[in-house]
Amino acid sequence: MAGWRRQNRGRENEFVTEHAAGGPRKGPRDLKNRLFLLVDGYIRDLFATGMVLQRLEYDVYIANSAEDALRIIDAATPALVMTELALPGMSGLELLIRIKQDNKDGAIPVIIHTASADFKREEHCLASGCASFLRKPVEPDALYTAIQRATEAAPRQHIRMRTLLPAMVGGRASSGGPATTEYVSELSESGIFVHTLSPRPVNSVLPVTVMIHTIPLKLKAVVLHSIALRRGLAREPGMGMRFLEPSATDRELIRNFIKGQIIKDIPMQ
User: Fold this and answer.
1) Residue 265, by phi and psi: left (phi above 0), alpha (psi -120 to 50) or beta?
2) Pick from 210, 193, 191, 198: nearest CA to 171
3) Which of 12, 58, 255, 261 has the fewest Cβ atoms surrounding its Cβ within 10 A?
């Protein structure tokens, strides 16, 4: 049995929050009450998937056998189990069935994440109660979507990454003021959080230019919530903004940037 806790809390671009643009803003610590158990007999895959989950801001324990996984489940009920089918000793399918037949643990969602291309095994797993059947290698956004659907009552659609990108936002808080350089501290396909000491009024529609890999991404966005700096404020001052009709090209640029940050330096298949 192996335990894996997230390291390097201060590293930029490795923090992903899972709230939608405009919703209650959560920091990394708010997501740490969810324990995920990752089970895989392939050490390389265990490492790679575990790192991706960490960068999606999930707490991860790892095990390389079903027997070890059951001991972890008995000691600390996880919010999710993700398992390979091919394991030493008991198989991932047997682990799934054991979990689903247990009165105490049967509600734990199980995602199968496997290199197997056997469609009959997929049918068997789905019939046995797995939440999703994913084939390796899986894209980070597809993995995130499966996790959200399995664990959240109101699943989020897009990964939201903590970052630091220069941005130009129009519409100063004092009307008629010029656009100024500010910073995007969180980014998703659907919106951004802009760190600024001069947040604009809610419902303002503003031009926004975000620099991604020296490429100026020009969009329009609406302010959904605004947080002004004041004494005793424990939250980051700024504004949450939702993009208005971003093009497919813009979405792809953002998606590829987020994916690149999540899988950076991780040996993928």
Assistant:
1) left
2) 198
3) 12
- CATH no. for residue 90? 3.40.50.2300
**220 has which bridge partners?**
207
Rg of the chain (C-alpha set): 21
Residue 246 within a domain: yes
Q: What's the rounded Cα separation, in Å, for the pair 37 and 39? A: 6
Residue with tokens 């392939």: 42
Residue 176: which region, alpha, beta or left (left: phi > 0; alpha: psi -120 to 50)? left
Res. 24: pLDDT tops 60: no
Question: Residue 69 CA to chain centroid, in angstroms?
Answer: 23
Could you tell me the residue range of the domain that residue 95 belongs to? 34-151
Per DSSP, the residues of 47-64 read HHHHHHHHHTT-EEEEES
Structural tokens at position 50: 């575990």
Token pair listed for 8: 């390097």
